[in-house]
Amino acid sequence: MRRRYEELxxxxxxxxxxxxxxxxxxxxWGAPRSSDYPMTSIPPSYLDTVVGGVLGPLGMSLGVFPQAxxxxxxxxxxxxxxxASCVPLCPIGAKYDASVHATKAETAxxxxxxxxxxxxxxxxxxxxxxxxxxxxxxxxxxxATGRIVVLAAHAIETPKLLLMSRDERMPKGVANSSDTxxxxxxSHIDQGTRGLTRAxxxxxxxxxxxxxxxEHRDGPFRGQYSAIGTSISNEGWRxxxxxxxxxxxxxxxxxxxxxxxxxxxxxxxxxxxxSTAETLxxxxxxxxxxxxxxxxxxxxxxxxxxRIDKYAKAGLALAxxxxxxxxxxxxxxxxxxxxxVTSSGTILGTxxxxxxxxxxxxxxxxxxxxxxxxxxxGGMVFPTxxxxxxxxxxxxxxxxxxxxxxxxxxxxx
Length: 413
Hints:
By secondary structure, the protein is an alpha+beta fold. The chain is about 25% helix and about 20% strand. The chain contains 8 helices and 14 strands.
């Protein structure tokens, strides 16, 4: 793992600057941070310090949670205001999202065709992607051509598009001589525990997460059960929230000042711990176009086959015991284990990266094995899932692919 990090280290450093990452990935490996980079880690919340105070006797600790969220004004984006409601979107634009670089691309002269859906890639006799066909909501169609084609439609729509682009020349679909496109769909598996701590911890302050427990992210145990990333949420019981608390108390007969006091008492003690398990790559987990179900403009919807493996379930079972120990140390009440769910925020695989064209779709530079001018960029190239959000690694691999693409234009000119 360290060797892989060192190979990509220059691109990781660049990715941190591009995204504006607070809490360096390099810190996890003991590498120094560039002295001219202004971003510092977002400090732990008060809630973090309270939870962290009981972890030592349990054999755990808290570490920095890297995130593309400004701790200081940077790249024309403001400093995080810590409102704990930035999922899915940051209300003030302090968090990086794709619109940042879409805007920069337009400023640099790129033309964006908005409200259009690509439905077919056309290849020529030289196995190059020659034309990209798209359809607009009004039913009109268009096409685009270029020397280089880059797909970045994530792990569901990218393989669906490649598989829909079947023709006599490519009977399995574009980039699919390996019959791997659409396979090895992976997600993080999430499970949480919530409870009311004895002493106030004052959630709903700071961004969603500022600290995480690092002890169970790697080790020999991964031969038996999954690695686990456990984070301390600043969101309280967000999915219920103060409004739901108020409604429940009103139904119990609370009103006026008494209602206000009870809402405050409960809200300032709400704690949620969340753990994420990695899943193993499984060719049965896949996505294919569903020719029997189409969307409003006639494009097939995805059909998804997915099962959670025993490997992830075993890791989460142990994580829930650790959650229970933490809540017990905090003398909590109303402790409840939440259902296991697949993460919609992290979807990986389906066009996996590898050296062998017989069992992978793209090479280390994200160039399709089957088509010299096609690059596939995003989490769909991951051969394994890990257990933490992969945004920084996605950006790192994209930057390495960009170097290869840029060099190709230089060599031709």
